[in-house]
UniProtKB/TrEMBL annotation:
This is Putative Se/S carrier protein-like domain-containing protein. InterPro entries: Se/S_carrier-like (IPR021778). Residues 2-69 form the Putative Se/S carrier protein-like domain.
Amino acid sequence: MECLLTFSNTHQVMKAEDVLNKQNIFTKPMPLPRDLGDFCGISLRIDRGQIEQGCEILRCNDVNLDGIYDIIQKNNKKEYVPW
């Protein structure tokens, strides 16, 4: 299962991706789903098993995380459930 990390701006997304990748926590950038808002158009997908470690790394590196969502597939549609 994967989670989606959202941020308030593109700078935070880029910083998060760089910091996490350096710690071998690999992310996949993707457009922010419309139903989650319109603040920053980019979000990061991360493996659910790495979310706690990833959040701690972001916190220690002053990366401002806006939200965390579980990505759930239902009826050929993705749902984003707050974590």
